[in-house]
Amino acid sequence: MAVRIVLGAQWGDEGKAKIVDYLTTDSDVVVRYQGGANAGHTIKAGDLEFVFHLIPAGIVHQDKACVVGNGVVLDPAALFQEVDELESKGISVDGRLFVSDRAHLVLPYHKAVEEANEKKIGDSAIGTTLRGIGPTYQDKINRSTGIRVGDLLDAELLPEKIRANVREKNEILKQVYGVEGLEEVQLIEEYMALGERLTPYITDTSVYLNDAIEAGKSILFEGSQGTLLDIDHGSYPYVTSSNTTAGGACTGAGIGPMRVNEVVGVVKAYTTRVGNGPFPTELNDEMGQRIRDIGHEYGATTGRPRRCGWLDVVMLGLARRINGLSSMAVTRVDILDELEEIKICTHYERNGQRVDHFPGDLNVLAECKPVYETLPGWQTPTPHIRSYGDLPENARRYLERVSELSRIPISIVSVGPDREETIVV
Ligand code: IMP
Fold first, then answer.
1. Which CATH number fits domain 268-424: 3.40.640.10, 3.30.360.10, 3.30.200.120, 3.90.170.10?
2. 3-state class (DSSP) for residue 72
3. Which CATH superfamily is domain 3-100+203-263 in?
């Protein structure tokens, strides 16, 4: 029995879904605990490829249960799009998908307000995924305006809540942003119908999960986004609106911290970021473009080109500290296969002083210059390799140096998108 958290140690897109998919084999339940349809978790299983935004990637294993926890913000239409796609590929979710009654609902007005706001603030825009994530968490924290999954079960209260929200948001849309509002009757009908379809899945998932743990089941928590996008510990304000870090699994699923046995940080062998905000090791040159081309670094949710750069040990230090990482799974090592040289940022320098901790102040971060150690590349294909000892010597040297500098042991190395292209260390 094990309770494990798998989460991103960088700015998201680390290849978490592939690691979750791999580790699902010895888990009974897979859980999403934060974020919403802003995530894009891609997994390859044989000839089939799936991109999940809301349902835990573990759902493709037909004998596993999947939970969408209370910390997730749920867009029910997006959820059913995934359910329909899974069913069209012969995968049924009935009886094994559980959605928390306490998760908050994303409604179309959240997306409309977000889009209007991102446009209005122009150069200071966060560069969000426009999935309504921030405004939904805003309503959750606001309390009087939040609508939860459980509210879908109340045919009297739901129309009332939607009506009050539409009126308030329409006023904001018109008065503050000068854009058209939404039609309330249509929205109420749509969410009543979605509520009816969602009813069989609605569960007190904290009770479900704690019972499962007490029955000796293995639970895998699937983080979305990454540590540096955490609302408290990330590169604020260029972050998402949830706690993407290990503590988020406890609050976002309703389990106690003493239940967790292991926290695996997923680390891409280089760094990428989508959206705006600082990125000390970013490569705005040919090398950055080369990595983007080899790695097809374009967002799974928005299709935006990802910004690319070298691996940053200062960032990994933050991920190790905040999450209490037990180990790391290093992914996309194969993307570096052809490079002549590879750099690791060991620390930053600011005004002639060494900086080892990721600063909270973005103005300070903007003044930090990355200091690199350069290692020779291995210039040999790795996707066929299945044991750590068979990796080219320079690949092992690179991985071992990253582990030594970050003080995080490596548990898994991924050398390709397929399940088999995985090396357990
Ligand atoms: P939001 O989560 O849509 O509010 O976007 C906030 C920031 O998080 C933006 O920079 C997004 O690009 C980024 N972001 C959100 N979800 C993901 C993800 O799954 N991978 C990578 N970046 C993400």
1. 3.90.170.10
2. strand
3. Adenylosuccinate Synthetase, subunit A, domain 1 (3.40.440.10)
Q: Is 41 an annotated catalytic residue?
A: yes
Fold match, 3-100+203-263 / 268-424: no
Mean pLDDT, the chain, integer: 96
Give me 22's structure tokens.
Answer: 């791999």
What is the CATH code for 104-198?
Answer: 1.10.300.10
Closest of 49, 57, 53 to residue 16, by C-alpha? 57
Of 405, 238, 246, the residue nearest 322 (C-alpha): 246
Least confident of 14-18, 326-330, 341-345, 390-394: 14-18
* Best mutation site among 225, 235, 266, 273 for ligand 1 pocket (most ligand atoms within 8 Å of CB): 225
133 within 8 A of 101, measured Cβ to Cβ: no
pLDDT in tens, 347-404: 999 999 999 999 999 999 999 999 999 999 999 999 999 999 999 999 999 999 999 9
**pLDDT of 1 above 90:** no
Could you tell me the distance, in angstroms and rounded to a whole number, from the CA of residue 174 to the centre of ligand 1? 27
Enumerate residues lining ligand 1, CB below 6 A. 12-13, 38-40, 126-129, 131, 133-134, 224-225, 229, 238, 240-241, 274-275
State the pLDDT at residue 47.
81
Pairing of strands 65-68, 3-8: unpaired
- For residue 319, which of 375, 258, 268, 370 has the smallest C-alpha distance? 268
The partner residues of 7 in beta bridges, in order of sequence, read 265
